[in-house]
C-alpha cells in the first residue's frame, strides 16, 4: 500500500536511469539507478553533480539515454510507476535497484518508507560513503546489498579521518551482503590499506574489498600498475577476498 503523499515522503533525485553497474560486488549486473541529490562529503575525485535542481533526469525508456525532466521533488508513487513500467518493458533485465548519490542516507527518514515498496519489485542495493551508521540502522532491514566506500585521506581530500565512522558503519551493515570499496591512486599509502584491513578484520574478514583505481582522462586510470599490485599485495596478506576493478561503466561508455 502506498504511503500518503507528504513532503516527508518526497526526495530530491538527480537522475533515474538503467545501466550496467560498473563498481564493486555487483559489477556487470544491470540495475535501475536512482541517484539521490545532496552529500555530506566533498571528495576531490567525485565525478557526480549531486546538487539539487528544479527538475531531475529520467530516462524515457530503460537504456535509451533519452531523458525527460520531471519537477522536483519526486514522491514514492512517481518512482514506483517508473520502476514498474521498466520491469514490465524489459522483464528479467534488471538485477536490482541501486540507490546511489550523493549520499542516499541523508534521506533515511523517507527511505524507511520507500524501500519496502521498491523491494517488492527488485532487490535493493545501497551505495554509500559509509559515514552515517545511525541513518543506516533506520533502513538496513529493507536493504539486500550494501556497498560502502572507505574514504582514504590520500585520494578523497577529506581532511577528517573517518576511520571510526567507517568502523561503526561496517558493523551496522554486517550481514546484509556488505562490501567495501576504496579508491586508490599513486598517492595511496600501504598504511591506509592496512587501516582498511584492520577495520574489516575486526568485523568480518570475509567481507569483500574492492580496490578501485582512480579514473583518469578518457578511459584510463591515474595509477601505475606496479603500485596497484603493491596495494593489492598489502591487502591480500590480511584478507581472503581482495579484487581490483576499475570503473567498468566508464570503459563501456555507459551512464
Describe this entry's structure for a reader.
The chain is of the alpha/beta class and 255 residues long. It has a single domain, classed as Alpha-Beta Barrel (TIM Barrel). Helices cover 31% and strands 21% of the residues. It is built from 8 helices and 12 strands. A 10-stranded mixed β-sheet has the order 5-4-2-3-7-8-9-10-11-12. A two-stranded antiparallel ribbon has the order 1-6. β11, α7 and β12 form a beta-alpha-beta unit.
In short:
The chain is of the alpha/beta class and 255 residues long.
List keywords for this structure.
TIM Barrel; 255 residues; 12 strands; disordered N terminus; two-stranded antiparallel ribbon; alpha/beta; 10-stranded mixed beta sheet
**SSE string:** EEEEEEHEHEHEHHEHEHEH
- Extended strand count: 12
The proportion of residues forming helix, as a percent range, comes to: 25-40%
User: Can you name the CATH architecture?
Assistant: Alpha-Beta Barrel
Q: Sum up the overall morphology in one term.
A: globular
CATH topology: TIM Barrel
Strand residue content: 15-25%
| Main sheet summary | 10 strands, mixed
Number of domains: 1
Strand order of the largest sheet: 5-4-2-3-7-8-9-10-11-12
Number of helices: 8
- Distance from N terminus to C terminus (CA atoms, Å) equals 32 Å
Structural class: alpha/beta
Question: For the record, what is the CATH homologous superfamily label?
Answer: Aldolase class I
The unreliable regions are 1-7
Supply the CATH class: Alpha Beta
Mean pLDDT over all positions: 90
What's the gyration radius in Å? 18 Å
Amino acid at each position: 500500500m502506498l504511503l500518503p503523499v507528504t513532503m516527508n515522503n518526497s526526495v530530491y533525485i538527480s537522475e533515474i536511469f538503467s545501466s550496467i553497474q560498473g563498481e564493486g560486488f555487483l559489477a556487470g549486473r544491470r540495475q535501475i539507478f536512482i541517484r539521490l541529490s545532496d552529500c555530506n562529503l566533498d571528495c576531490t575525485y567525485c565525478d557526480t553533480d549531486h546538487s539539487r535542481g528544479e527538475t531531475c533526469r529520467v530516462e524515457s525508456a530503460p537504456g535509451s539515454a533519452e531523458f525527460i525532466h520531471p519537477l522536483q521533488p519526486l514522491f514514492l508513487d512517481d518512482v514506483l510507476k517508473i520502476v514498474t513500467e521498466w520491469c514490465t518493458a524489459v522483464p528479467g533485465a534488471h538485477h536490482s535497484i541501486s540507490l546511489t548519490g550523493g549520499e542516499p542516507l541523508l534521506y533515511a527518514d523517507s527511505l524507511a518508507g520507500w524501500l519496502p515498496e521498491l523491494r517488492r519489485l527488485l532487490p535493493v542495493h545501497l551505495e554509500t560513503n559509509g559515514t552515517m551508521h545511525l541513518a543506516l540502522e533506520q533502513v538496513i532491514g529493507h536493504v539486500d546489498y550494501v556497498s560502502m566506500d572507505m574514504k582514504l585521506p590520500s585520494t578523497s581530500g577529506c581532511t577528517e579521518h573517518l576511520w571510526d565512522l567507517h568502523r561503526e558503519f561496517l558493523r551496522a551493515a554486517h550481514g546484509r551482503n556488505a562490501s567495501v570499496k576504496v579508491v586508490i591512486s599513486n598517492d595511496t599509502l600501504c598504511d591506509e590499506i592496512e587501516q582498511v584491513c584492520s577495520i574489516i578484520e575486526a568485523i568480518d574478514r570475509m567481507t569483500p574489498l574492492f580496490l578501485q583505481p582512480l579514473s583518469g582522462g578518457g578511459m584510463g586510470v591515474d595509477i601505475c600498475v606496479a603500485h596497484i599490485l603493491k596495494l593489492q599485495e598489502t591487502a591480500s596478506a590480511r584478507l581472503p577476498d581482495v579484487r581490483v576493478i576499475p570503473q567498468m561503466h566508464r570503459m563501456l561508455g555507459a551512464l
